[in-house]
Amino acid sequence: MTIYTVTYTYDENRADDRAGLLPEHRAWLTGKKDDGALIEAGVYTDSAMALLLFRFDSILTAERELDADPFAVAGLITSRVLHAWKPGWGPVAALAEA
């Protein structure tokens, strides 16, 4: 499995819409965590952005799964950037080897 870093940039003009969909988004994240795909997720405190770490078998799978995020379905994400990432050391590095 490959680890992917994912950066979301949110539409700052739709913060209320994002807040309204937050329970569905968190349920989606919980499902990804439960199936072993989600490693970590969190928002930046200084911007309308988030960083997520996932394990997927391919970039195509990553894109398909991320397209199903309720925030993406609702058009609340203005930019999504994915990178395959190989951690060199630390707790996430062990996940990359699994």
TrEMBL record:
<dbReference type="Pfam" id="PF03795">
    <property type="entry name" value="YCII"/>
</dbReference>
<protein>
    <recommendedName>
        <fullName>YCII-related domain-containing protein</fullName>
    </recommendedName>
</protein>
<dbReference type="InterPro" id="IPR005545">
    <property type="entry name" value="YCII"/>
</dbReference>
<dbReference type="InterPro" id="IPR011008">
    <property type="entry name" value="Dimeric_a/b-barrel"/>
</dbReference>
<feature type="domain" description="YCII-related">
    <location>
        <begin position="4"/>
        <end position="86"/>
    </location>
</feature>
<comment type="similarity">
    <text>Belongs to the YciI family.</text>
</comment>
